[in-house]
Structures are given as C-alpha cells and as structure tokens.
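Lab notes, practical 5.
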Amino acid sequence: MKIHIEDNSSTELIKEKFSKAYPFLKLEFFSSGHKEKENSKKEDLITSDSLLKDIRSKHNEGDFIITPQSKVSEVEQGFESKFGIYVQVYRKSRNLWLETTSTDRWTLIEQNKVGMDMES
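Output from the prediction step:
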C-alpha cells in the first residue's frame, strides 16, 4: 500500500486507506509521540478530521510504502521520522480497539489476522 503524504492530505483519508487494506486495524493520530511498547496519551488524541499541515512537524511530501510484512513499530516510527506525524496502530478485539503496544514487533498481517480471528 502506498500512502501519499502532503500538507493537504486529511487524517480521515489516511485512516480510511489504511483500514481498507487492514480491516481489523486502524490508525489514530496524536499531537505527540510515544516510545515503543508505550501507550499514547489519550489527551493527545486528534479526534477530528484534520489536514496534515496542521498536525505535523515535518512538512516533507512523499509516498509512504506500507507492506503486510511491515511491523507496527516500523509503521509508527516511519510516519514520525519521515513526516513528523504521530500515529498509533490499534487492533480490533471483538467490540474494543486495543493499542498494539505489547505487540509492536508483529507484522501488520499478523495483527490483522488476530483481529479477524477475534471476530469469529
């Protein structure tokens, strides 16, 4: 999956594209970062649809390639290091969305499969 990042991209569009590729995962955007295996602060959650220009510290434009073999930590760190965007990956667990902090080293395909298995 390729996500084009530019200042006029919306958080909602990126979330939709990610969830279309990984239906049992979702991205959430935050105003500050977190360390590996650490939860993001709830008060830093960006709840409304925003343009990237309003929430990021680096205004690089480019494509971000995410593969099924990408680890959660690589995706989160990639958004931050390349584009100054703070994200957290969540996995569906029945009716809940869980932060993937304890499984940051799992690949997206592994995370998505676990979420799918929880549905059945």
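Observations recorded by the TA: The chain has a mean pLDDT of 93. The chain has three helices and five strands.
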